[in-house]
Here is the input.
Amino acid sequence: MKNSKDVVVLVGSGSIGQAIARRVGAGDHIVLADLRQEAADSAAKILEDAGFEISTITVDISSRDSILKLIEHAQQFGQIKNLINAAGVSPSQAPVNAILKVDLYGTAVLIEEFGKVIADGGSGVIISSQSGHRLGTLSEEENYKLATSPTEELLNLDFIKAITDTLKAYQYSKRCNGLRVMYEATAWGKRGATINAISPGIIITPLANDELHGPRKDGYLKMIEASPAGRAGTPDEVGDLAAFLMSSHGRFINGADFLIDGGTTASYWFGDLQYLKATH
Ligand SMILES: NC(=O)c1ccc[n+]([C@@H]2O[C@H](COP(=O)([O-])OP(=O)(O)OC[C@H]3O[C@@H](n4cnc5c(N)ncnc54)[C@H](O)[C@@H]3O)[C@@H](O)[C@H]2O)c1
Here is the structure.
């Protein structure tokens, strides 16, 4: 080992991930992993200039081999204390199969593989989405299968193979994130670690900006204005929640999924935003 520090692994080095890493990574070694090396490099420049110790690596979370190489890279520096997964693709960015491979399958594999190596006292946070809270109730069997199926079988589930719409693919993927976190909380708990999901509403980042300029932009703007908060969120607000979950104050929280959406989901089901049910 080079210097045996605690290691924070951030997958997906966009602004939500960076906000979390800044809050939990001081004094540790932070691994910035991203499909796009240039994204990891530009995040590295910002964080190094702010005093953090960084290394970067290219990873594709839809490949188990790539995830295993990431773990090997991280372990050179010490024990893995934190996993932050903020990698993902949105319904306006990618086709159905890419969304399912990255957001559903890849995230499940990431939780599984890091759950085998996470340090005692460690914790993980998976950035899911309010979208996962917009699916109607799934059957108990569908829920169980999404939560517990062996990762290599997830994309072959009948009701997953039947998805043809990118928004549905994203919603199922994000619902699956919360369920996998519940399922894996046992394994993480046995190692003295916790794993939780955070489901943000609209947070202003490049990904959200793609949505705000994509085919669903009118709906997005209207939804923001009519939401209880009346505004979009910021990466720093998500960072604060994640930092709490990963701190000593969050040790009793494991296998949970936290909405942070300014009340949008509450309004979608029971308030002013119920009109969206016809389109989402
Ligand atoms: N921004 C929002 O409003 C919002 C709302 C709810 C949920 N989210 C979720 O937050 C997460 C981060 O989003 P963001 O807004 O910071 O977006 P972003 O585009 O800034 O960051 C996502 C990063 O993931 C990387 N990535 C994509 N596919 C990958 C793969 N296969 N392997 C590794 N890295 C990959 C991208 O290169 C990018 O750097 C996503 O999972 C997204 O679904 C975002």
Q: What stands out?
A: The mean pLDDT is 95.
